[in-house]
């Protein structure tokens, strides 16, 4: 055999071996992909609510990116457990995951509501999520979940909500005195806030609010936004809809999973879950901008009287927040620890926004004479 022939033969052997190695490299992930993990994932929202749609947007992202390796099955509130029992079910492994708001669990520790419905420090929900990711929020959240309460959970905060309306009422509220004695539905720290203002607060899940308002069990209620509120049927039992409030001005969703099952996932699937939550977070805000404005116009067309909350009530809310913060910080050292972190973050980050950002409302009124 000549040198030239030997070189040609050696080259063919190398290419054959490389091709075989390449086939093996490609084939191995296919074997892994055949092993599907299926998770039951329940929201705390009724099927028709846009919030359940937001939960579905997150699930869709996970399923599409994970291929056939992880399949998340979305269930509506009550499919396995009632809305307010979702966290317990995930903790116990009855459910693999769920979509809700951290304010629903504040009965276990009022600091839970700080991770989703924090006080009105002048920040919005996007700034709150910035604190979660870059201001130490997740470290404090994980400390509460795993060390303080010792829950078998992994959580992601997702979806910056616009400021919530004051709510729906039988008659217009004009002063802070109108809140005294009012039978009112809310959740989380907003319950402490309204109690401080003299209201009689009732905590109800979303699907229970309108029937309670219709029967007179409550005099007023908030849920979240024009889309959710109209789908729940508020406009059928009330025509007074008051926008602007400091009770929940920086809220986001909470996506949770059973920690044991999440930890069992390979690293790439954990990454898919995390980045799906972040992607859904951005999309949720874009979709809400479109849908909430359309549905507010539709409510007006149906005869709903949309009223801006008077400054007297807004100022009374801020004063009440100061009292609630002082009281709970004195009772709960961990609550105080989170509050101090949030206030330091807002003081620094909001100072830049105030210095740099012109009043957008002025520009809107200039061009649209609104």
User: What is the overall number of helices?
Assistant: 13
Average pLDDT: 90
According to DSSP, the number of beta strands is 11
CATH fold group of the domain at 36-160 and 251-289: D-Maltodextrin-Binding Protein, domain 2
Strand content: 5-15%
Structure write-up:
With 370 residues, the chain is of the alpha/beta class. The chain has a domain at 36-160 and 251-289: Bacterial extracellular solute-binding protein, family 7 (D-Maltodextrin-Binding Protein, domain 2), CATH 3.40.190. It is 53% helix and 14% strand. The chain is built from 13 helices and eleven strands. A six-stranded mixed sheet has the order 7-6-8-5-9-11, with helices on one face. α2 (50-66) links the parallel β1 (37-43) and β2 (70-75). α2 (50-66) packs antiparallel against α10 (267-301), α4 (125-134) crosses α5 and α6 crosses α11 (311-331). The model is unreliable at 1-34 (pLDDT under 50).
Summarize the structure.
Helices cover 53% and strands 14% of the residues. The protein is an alpha/beta fold.
List the helices and strands and how they pair.
Elements: H1 3-33, E1 37-43, H2 50-66, E2 70-75, H3 86-92, E3 97-100, H4 125-134, H5 137-148, E4 153-160, E5 167-169, E6 183-185, H6 189-196, E7 200-202, H7 206-215, E8 220-221, H8 226-232, E9 240-243, E10 252-258, H9 259-263, H10 267-301, E11 305-308, H11 311-331, H12 333-356, H13 360-368
Parallel strand pairs: 1-2, 1-3, 6-7, 6-8, 9-11
Antiparallel strand pairs: 3-10, 4-10, 5-8, 5-9
């Amino acid at each position: 055999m000549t040198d030239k022939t030997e070189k040609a033969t050696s080259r063919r052997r190398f290419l054959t071996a490389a091709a075989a190695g390449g086939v093996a490299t490609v084939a191995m992930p296919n074997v892994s992909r055949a092993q599907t993990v299926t998770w039951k994932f329940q929201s705390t929202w009724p099927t028709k609510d846009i919030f359940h749609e937001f939960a579905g947007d997150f699930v869709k992202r996970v399923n599409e990116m994970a291929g056939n390796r992880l399949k998340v099955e979305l269930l509506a509130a009550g499919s396995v457990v009632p809305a307010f029992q979702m966290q317990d079910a995930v903790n116990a492994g009855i459910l693999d995951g769920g979509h809700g708001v951290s304010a629903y669990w504040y009965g276990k520790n009022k600091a839970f509501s700080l991770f989703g419905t924090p006080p009105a420090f002048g920040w919005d929900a996007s700034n709150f999520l910035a604190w979660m990711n870059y201001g130490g929020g997740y470290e404090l959240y994980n400390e509460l979940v795993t060390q303080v309460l010792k829950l078998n959970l992994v959580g992601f905060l997702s979806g910056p909500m616009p400021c919530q309306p004051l709510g729906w009422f039988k008659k217009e509220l004009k002063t802070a005195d109108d809140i005294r004695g009012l039978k009112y539905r809310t959740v989380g720290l907003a319950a402490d806030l309204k109690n401080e203002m003299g209201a009689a607060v009732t905590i109800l899940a979303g699907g229970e609010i309108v029937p309670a308002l219709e029967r007179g069990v409550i005099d007023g209620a908030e849920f979240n936004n024009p889309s959710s509120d109209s789908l729940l049927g508020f406009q059928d039992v009330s025509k007074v809809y008051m926008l602007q409030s400091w009770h929940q001005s920086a809220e986001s969703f909470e996506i949770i999973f059973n920690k044991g099952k999440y930890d069992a996932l390979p690293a790439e699937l954990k990454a898919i879950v995390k980045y799906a939550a972040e992607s859904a977070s951005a999309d949720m805000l874009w979709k809400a901008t479109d849908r909430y404005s359309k549905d507010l116009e539709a409510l007006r067309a149906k005869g709903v009287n949309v009223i801006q909350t008077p400054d007297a009530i807004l100022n009374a809310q801020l004063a009440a927040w100061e009292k609630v913060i002082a009281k709970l910080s004195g009772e709960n050292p961990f609550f105080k620890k989170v509050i101090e972190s949030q206030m330091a973050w807002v003081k620094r980050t909001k100072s830049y926004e105030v210095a740099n950002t012109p009043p957008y409302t002025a520009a809107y009124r200039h061009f649209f004479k609104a």
